[in-house]
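S., here's the first fold you wanted:
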Amino acid sequence: MKLKRMLSLLLSAVMVLALAACGSKTATETTDAPSEETDNPKVLTMAVSAELNTLYPLNMDVQNNVATKLCYEGLVNYVDGQVEPCLAESWEFSNEGKDLTFKLRQGVTYHDGTPFNAEAVKTCFEFAKDNPNFGAIRAACNLESVEVVDDYTVTFHYPNAYFAYLYDFCYPEVMILESPKVILPEEDENRYMTMSGVVGTGPYIYDEIVAGDYVRFVRNDNYWGETPDYDEVIVKYIPESSARLQALQNGDIDMIYGSALMTWDDYEQATSLPNIKGIVSSYDSNTRNVVLNAGSAKLGDLKVREAIAYAVDKEALSAGLTLGNESAANKLFPEGTPYTSGSLNVVRTYDQEKANALLDEAGWKMNDSTGIREKDGEPLSVVFTYDFGNVMNQSIATIIRSQLAEVGIEVTTTGQDMMTWWKEGASGNYDMTIWNTEQPYTSPHNFFAPMLNRSAHAPSLAALPDISQFEACVAEFQTSDDEARIQEIFDYLLNFDNDNVIDLPLLYVKDMIVFNTDKISDYTFTSTPMFFDIRQLTPAK
């Protein structure tokens, strides 16, 4: 019954998110388009694999990663492990860490002419507080109230201290400041599913969308920060990877950005073309990771999950899929992630002999005629699901299927759209599923916090004999700012997860960019490389 209640809560939030992804629009009404027409506007053209018709702070669709920083901004930014000012110039905690006060930047205006001030911030985050899409982000869902102190001072009141409140404000795709005018009224049943427009404070204005073709952004001439180089940005909808490469070669687009849109074979092919340059981020974005379902019939035995961990050759994945650019992950989070530097009780590296021994001990015997292990007449067959929106996922699943076949495990791989994959994962309808970790500013806290009720981990953890201490630790770190205790908690959580083989980290993700050197001379990655930042781009002279 406990799992059923958890899934009911999770699926209601997921369905809201799914419906949000179905929202669409044809144009955004704005007032701040460039004031002067030019005969030869400077245009940057890029591509995505799905239409940018849900560019709202309601979901974390990877397609939006190339565009969210064009039009939106948050109170703060995450830069090289530190929180830095953006629309908030300064901040301070008070009342034993339960109150967070921001001093806001003055002279900022939304694209629709609405003033950016404390009232706007209050409206945006009161909306987020009640929105089920924000249920895992404590800085939003844990809010008691937002107080307007004066026009440019706002205080967030919380029931308890929490070490990660400020980091939660660093989400560049959801914890941003949209115009209050695009939030639907409370009586509208679609309030948490869509918005009436794409309107932020960023350097570019969402100007028009042509369904099935492109989205056009125009420079915000009233932008408070440094004036952008380009007059316009065109984001073309090109669903096929090969077609995106062809468009780059033909000059129809100027660049392709990010590991969600390119495999490393795509990257190598692109950089072999004349006048095409590629750059790889020096930062690890997150971790390619597989969740193993301890609640499934075939993976309920810890020895089987351990065998899978030993049978997966991560070094082969690194070399074969990423040309060695993404290193094998023996820990769940990349080096430098806060609170994750502690040692693990066991580190499992590729050992096919050990994998076979564990499967033998678990009673799964090899059928030499089929090459598939069996027990009580049942084959050791598992279902491996993944979100096909990330171009690497299918290749990862295919290689792991081949590696597990070598120890007698039959794998059926199933690519799903994002909402189906999420819903099925939360319901436990999988044996293995690709479920990558969070970004550096939200790890490890916002990876562990949803495990009990909002991710594919929930049905897996619920099947373990005793998770009471795990549950207590997850609850405790969300109400603490005691650094030493938080470190102890994450040492425990990481080892519990690893000892029970709930997660199988594979590779540390690197993001990359390829571009036409006739149009672009350089790009400098930020420490949040999953998100494209046009201010880091240097146009060709």
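And the second, which I think is the more interesting of the pair:
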Amino acid sequence: MRSGWQRLVADLLRSVPRGRWLLAASIVLAALASGASIALIGVSAWLISKAAEHPNFLDLSVAAVGVRFFGISRGVFRYTERLVGHELALRMQSALRLRTYTTLARTTLMGKRHGDMLVRVVADVEAVQDVVVRVVLPFASAVVVMVGTSAMLVRFSLGNAAVLLATAVVAGLVLPAWAQRVSRDADAAAIPLRGRLADQVRQTALVAVDLVAYDADTAALARIDDLDAQLRAAERRATAVRAWAAAGQVVAAGTAVIAALWIGGAAVVSGAIAPRLLAVLVLTPLALHEVLGGLAQAAQTLTRAQTALDRVVEVLDAEPVGRGDAPLADASEHPAVHVADLTIGWPGFAPVGSGISFDLAAGESVAVVGPSGVGKTTLAATVLGLIPPVSGEVTTSGRVGYLAQDAHLFATTIAENVRIGNKDATDDEVVAALDQAGLPLDPDRIVGELGATLSGGEARRLALSRLFAGSYDVLVLDEPSEHLDAPTANALLDDLWSSVGTRPLLVVTHDERVVARCDKVVRLTA
């Protein structure tokens, strides 16, 4: 029975047009390229040995043409194999990335470890390319070349062919399997460690200023160093195993060469084969074992690809938590929110609040207050439709817009940030939205990473302008005055209340100034 990652790879292969044919063509081309390299060595050995006998030039002409043919064809075959193989691998990778994005679009990422998720979506998805290009093609073509080369030598020396096949199996199959088994734990640990390291670096980068201000940067960097040390230790263990496997492959190649000298030499002495064929029997094993040299690393790559793709399968198979996007309702002339005996909580976890009831009509504002962790943001997510209520009733009329507490600002223009609220907004509508938010900035101005080139008040106003660009009927604001000084917060609140008109306003806040402006207060308790 196939495991999750195997089913995923097989499904992706079927999803690519002519995927099986592309895979077969890649294997054949890879085998032809490796075979041409081996044939080049063999024919060159025969040509040099024959030339030492000073024969007629015509006796060398066919071999000379063969050397030229195999020398050119191996490059052509390898280049074509790279084109076809990567065409297949990149198509499979694109299909998997789209499938992953589609899955994530159906769920909310609130509460997720974004650094680890980013690694899964980017680096782990790329593992499907490793499976095709760095595992399947090398191993499949190596098996074809091993059998083909041994079969070709049978006509010259059965003993040499048998020894070559045996050493090739050891170097190309046994030692890679041993390396994979011995380093399995290290290779499997490296992938999640990569995700944990990315998550820790992301968290540290986001709060770097605060860490330095409170003299906590040393501890944060120590956590990064610890994860990096664990990752480097796993890499060292895997590299050590690979080095021992490579040493074993060198021994196998040397054994094949010595056996060729021993058996071939005896055959020459007995007159069973011509002397010039001894060079062919001796040099061919070197060429074949050179083809097998990277298979130990390919076997270790398979372990890492398995682990990475299993992490992607976890994302694909995970039950969606709520919805990725709030459902966009039709506009309403009578926008309102009705909440009756509501129990809230994240799917799969215990409820965080119950017995919540209120009505919010046009022209009204409701403040949701309570201690941290009591479920205020959870209530907002439930009203938005991002997560379902545990029990009770939530109904909304009109389009609901949301201002998140940590609304992300992209490193692009002011206008493009505004269009997050309405991707079809015209230039005039962008300017109008900025005016409503009280932010008279050039729409073409570039916003730095995470809004670094804006003040705190400007960043909140820019995020607020997205709501005005989207023509929402009901506004849900999460901590609109958070992290702002009193004058800036008051100016923002004045502009906000003067701009919302008769739209219902649901505000999650700790700020008493915001509470004082609202018509109703809903208090959540632990």
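Why I say that: The mean pLDDT is 86. Residues 414 and 442 are 7 Å apart (CA to CA).

Talk tomorrow,
H.
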